[in-house]
Design brief:
Strands 1, 2, 8, 9, 10, 11, 17, 18 and 19 form a nine-stranded mixed sheet that branches. The chain has an eight-stranded mixed sheet with strand order 5-6-4-13-14-15-12-16, with helices on both faces. The protein is an alpha/beta fold. The protein is built from nine helices and 19 strands. Bound molecules: flavin-adenine dinucleotide. The site of flavin-adenine dinucleotide has 41 residues, from strand 9, strand 12, strand 16 and helix 8.
Length: about 400
């Protein structure tokens, strides 16, 4: 094995939705950062599968606060860096047709408002104004949060990478982490580096801290530290149309199960380029790492889209793809320090919301690593702890 003597303050495993912004914030803290990714460039894992929705309107306080920080970062990015990542402040709207969804959404309004979110319940006419052309048949109303929005995951990833490099962060691609270097034993173990493989050559990189931000492969990295945290990838498909004139402000979420019996919720929006971008959650999960598209997706989502907004019927679909949600058992990410191994940090289990949480989590992890405490209160941060009670969970996923 060739041994690279160069030492870093922090090594990040994975240049995805979490790893790339974390590299930027750590470099901003003045830390010497190395990011390793087995792909050819930043954002080639699940980051590029995301449709770019960013909302703070969750029910879990930690997700609310992390995404609130992400919203501030995304919305000011152009002003601060000069790079346009296609931030579109159109809000999020959840149109409601059944008592069940009305009850769930209304029940979480108090906690959302307590955390300072601008969100309210609106009647059917107001929802029709917010989502022009929405099917009024049986519409109860819905929630709308005007400060949420959308960003291009491709542009954001590239820009976090560029800005992190400007601040001195180093990125190495097509280099896979195959082991952790751990010293000590018993209660005094510490991670001091990683071993990588590139073209059959093994290299050791040394650092004071290592962050696992390996997305769908995060459990494998945890296992290298003897840590058992199940992150189970399941597949979701998405699509995008040709651009049309802007007609839809918010990202729209329909929480109902589909009539065809295969789909749970689905969501879509019109991005800054005018393209409609969409995906759904299958009721029966497709577990595993297979990212090939199925032929089931388009006929099902097309019916659901046209049923909700009939004027979408003439859109031309340009491209479909499939990606993975790295799921935890309770639908909440696992973020913080490994309690057993000094210097080993986790930013994993992002489920279906890693793009929107990435910058907020990166900001907090960088503060934790550089200054010993997160930006949000310790009480809120601990809701994401690897040692938390996993039986609670996110209301909108139940
Ligand atoms: C169809 C679809 C739509 C979505 N829409 C949204 C949305 O609108 N908003 C939202 O917030 N989220 C959305 N998501 C979810 C989001 O894409 C994920 O939650 C997020 O990308 C996960 O981020 P991550 O950093 O954990 O993983 P990734 O972005 O996948 O990054 C992990 C990186 O680690 C690297 N890696 C793994 N193992 C190793 C190793 N051993 N050595 C080196 N590198 C390694 C991978 O190559 C990868 O680049 C969507 C997902 C899908 C599939």
């Amino acid at each position: 094995m060739s041994s690279k003597k160069k030492a870093y303050d922090v090594i990040i495993i994975g240049s995805g939705s979490v790893g790339t912004p974390t590299a930027y914030f750590l470099a901003k803290e003045g830390m010497k950062v190395l990011v390793l990714d087995e792909s050819a460039s930043s954002g080639q894992g699940q980051n590029k599968a995301a449709i770019g929705g960013v909302r703070a309107t969750h029910s879990d306080p930690a997700k609310i606060e992390m995404c609130g920080q992400s919203l501030r970062i995304f919305s000011k990015w152009k002003e601060e860096t000069g790079t346009d990542i296609e931030w579109k402040k159109g809000g999020y709207c959840f149109p409601v047709y059944r008592d069940n969804e009305e009850g769930v959404l209304k029940s979480i309004l108090p906690i959302q408002k307590k955390h300072g979110l601008e969100i309210d319940w609106y009647g059917p006419d107001e929802v029709a104004r917010i989502v022009p052309g929405v099917n009024m048949n049986g519409l109860h109303g819905g929630t709308f949060s005007p400060n949420d929005g959308q960003v291009s995951p491709l542009l954001a990833s590239e820009s976090f990478n560029d800005e992190a490099r400007k601040l001195g962060a180093e990125f190495r691609f097509r280099e896979s982490v195959v082991d952790l270097v751990i010293e000590g034993d018993g209660d005094s173990k510490a991670v001091v580096g990683v071993v990588t493989s590139k073209g059959g050559k093994r290299t050791e990189h040394r650092a004071g801290a290592v962050l696992n931000a390996a997305g769908a492969s995060a459990s494998e990295i945890c296992a290298m530290a003897g840590l058992d945290i199940p992150i189970t990838p399941d597949s979701h498909e998405a699509g995008i149309t040709a651009p049309v004139k802007q007609f839809l402000g918010p990202l729209v979420v329909d929480l109902r199960p589909g009539p065809e019996g295969r789909t749970a919720n689905f969501y879509f929006g019109q991005n800054a380029q005018g393209q409609v971008i969409f995906c759904y959650t299958p009721i029966e999960k497709f577990y595993g790492m297979d990212r090939r598209c199925t032929s089931e997706f388009m006929p099902v989502i097309a019916r659901r889209l046209v049923d909700l907004i009939p004027r979408l019927k003439n859109m031309t679909v340009r491209r479909l793809w499939r990606g993975l949600y790295p799921m935890t058992v309770d639908g909440v990410p696992v973020v913080g320090q490994d309690p057993c191994i000094d210097g080993f940090y986790l930013g994993i289990g992002m489920c279906g919301q890693g793009f929107m949480m990435g910058p907020g989590i990166g900001l907090n992890l960088s503060s934790l690593i550089a200054k010993g405490k997160p930006v949000v209160s310790q009480e809120v941060f601990d809701l994401l702890s690897p040692t938390r009670d996993y039986t609670c969970g996110e209301e909108l996923l139940k």
